[in-house]
Amino acid sequence: MRWCAAIFLAVGLAGCSTGFDRLETATPTLSASQRADLSRHAKSAVELGVPERGAAVGEVAGLDNVTVALCKVPTSQPRDPGGQFAVPVILASINGKTGVRMLLDSGSNRNLFGYSLAHAVGVTAVAGAEPVKSSGIGGSVDNFIGVAQSVKVDALELRRVLALIGPDTQVMNITHGFWGSAQSMILGMNTLRRLSYVSIDTPRGKVTFAPREAYCARPASRFVTKVPLQWVNGLPMIEAVLDGKPLACYVDTGGDYGLLLPRKAAGNLGYWRPGHETISISKGVGGASLAATYKVREVKIGNAAFVQLPARTQVTGPDAAGGNALLGNVCLRRMCVTFDFQNGQLWLER
Q: How far, in Å, CA of 237 to CA of 286, rounded?
C-alpha cells in the first residue's frame, strides 16, 4: 500500500538577527523504541477495515449539519475580529476518548497524530505500509500510516480515518505556543473534502460541518464574496491579487501567519532583499527555519481587500509548499470562511 503526503504548516515566533545557525532546529524523528512499538502493534489493512483501494476509508456517518464551538487560542490582539482564535481548533472524540483537541488545517492534505496522542487514543499503524514523508517549513519527516476507527464531532462521525503518526515535536512545532506540551490531532483536507462544506466562522467562534446540505451565503451577512477553489497536491488553492498582480495561493487555516511568499516572488515584488531583512523563526512539520518578515501593501481575494498584511519569506532551506505562496489564518480569521467542496468555491463573509 502506498500513500503520499505534503503537509504545509507554519507558526511564527519572534527571532533575532544574529547567530542564525543556532536558531535553526533539527528535523524531528521517531525514536527507535517508538518505531518498534508501532511495528509491534501494527495490524493489516484488512484487519483495520481499510482495503488497498480505500473504498471504506473515511466514511461519513450522519446526514445532519453539526455546529460546534472553537477552542479559544488568543492572539496578541484578542479584541480584533477573530482575535480569540489564532487557528481553528475544536474538541473531538477519537476511538471513544473525549476532549481531544483537533486542528482544522486546510494547509495539510493528510491527518496527523504525534506518537504520544496516537498511542493514548489507540490509533493503530498499518502493517507493511511504507513510511510516508510529510514536507513543510523546516524540512521533511518520515511518518507511519495509522487508522483511527472513529473520529466524532458531536453527532457527526468519521469512520476508519487514515492518518500519519509522527514524532510529537512535529505536531508541537505547530501547537507548542498554544498549549505547551499538550497534544492535538491535525485534521486535513483529505478527510474534510468528504463533506459538502465546512464553514469556519472565527469571528463568532464556531464551525459548521455539513455532510450533504448545499451551501448558501448567510442572509444576515453584510459582505459576501467567493472565488473558485482549485486543488493542487490535494490542497485548496485560490488566485489572489497581490499589489495588483495575480498570485496563486494555498489556503492554510492551520498557519498563524498572514502570507508566506517564496523568495522569487518576494524579491520580484521588492519585499525581500538578502542582507536587508528583519529575521524571525518559522516553525513547521520539519522543524524550524529562518524567515524575513515584512508587510505587504494589499492582498485581494475576490472583492475582499486586506491591507498591510504581515508576510514572511523563508531565507534558509528550500521554499515551503514547493515554491508556492500560502495564505494563513491571520487574514482568514477576520471573516467567516467556507470551503464549499460540493461547488468548488471559497466563500468569505462578515
A: 22
Q: Which residues of 158-177 are buried (b: 16+ CB within 10 A; e: fewer)?
A: bbbbbbbbbbbbbbbbbbbe
Cβ atoms of 336 and 226 within 8 Å: the answer is no
Cβ atoms 304, 223 nearer than 8 A: yes
Domain boundaries along the sequence of the chain: 26-210, 224-349
- Which CATH architecture group holds 26-210? Beta Barrel (2.40)
Query: pLDDT tens digits for 27-83?
Result: 678 999 999 999 999 999 999 998 765 556 789 998 899 999 999 999 889 999 899
Long-range contact pairs involving 130-134 (C-beta distance under 8 Å, separation at least 24) = 130/1, 130/2, 132/3, 132/4, 132/5, 132/164, 133/4, 133/5, 134/5, 134/6, 134/7, 134/110, 134/164, 134/166, 134/170, 134/285, 134/286
Q: Do domains 26-210 and 224-349 have the same CATH topology?
A: yes
> Against a cut of 0.85, is the pTM above it?
yes
User: What is the rounded distance in angstroms from the CA atom of residue 289 to the CA atom of residue 44?
Assistant: 37
Residue type, 288: A
Which single residue is written with the C-alpha cell 515566533? 13
* CATH code of the domain occupying 224-349: 2.40.70.10
